[in-house]
Amino acid sequence: MLVLLALGGFAESLRHPRGDRPLSGSLDPAAADPRVEPDCPEPPAREGQPRREVDTVDFEDVTSGVLFDCPQTYDHSVVTYRGEVVGAVLPRGSHAWVHLNDDAYAELSGPLPTHRDFRGPNTGVGALIPRELAEQIRFVGAPGTRGDVLEVIATFQRVDDATDEVAILRVSRGVVTRVGGPYERGLLPDRAIAAALLVPVTAGFLAWARRVDRRR
Amino acid sequence: MLFRPDERDFRLIGFYAGKVLFGVGLVMLLPAALAIVLGEGNDAVSFVIGACLAVLVGQASQTFLRSPAPLSTSHGLTAVALSYFVVPFFACIPLLLSGHYASYLDAYFESVSAFATTSLTLVNDLDHLSRSVKLWRQLMQMQGGLGIVIVVLTVFAGAAGQSGLLYSGESGDERTAPNVLPIVRFVWRLTLVYGVAGTLALWAGMILTGLGPWEGLFHASALFMAAFDSGGFSLHSANVAFYRSTLVEAILMVLMVAGAFSFALHHQLWQGRSRELLRNIETRTIAASIILIFVLVGIGLGRSMTFVDFGPLLRHGLFQLVSAHTTTGLTTIPGRLLVTDWGVLAPAMLVTAMAIGGMAGSTAGGIKAIRIGLLLKGLRRDTRKVLLPEDAVIVETYHVTTDRILRDEQVRGAATMLLLWLVLYLTGGMLAVFYGYDVTLALFESVSAGSSTGLTVGIVRPSLEWPLKLAFIVQMVTGRLEFIAVFALAGYVVSVVRGRV
Question: What is the pTM of this model?
Answer without folding.
Answer: 0.93
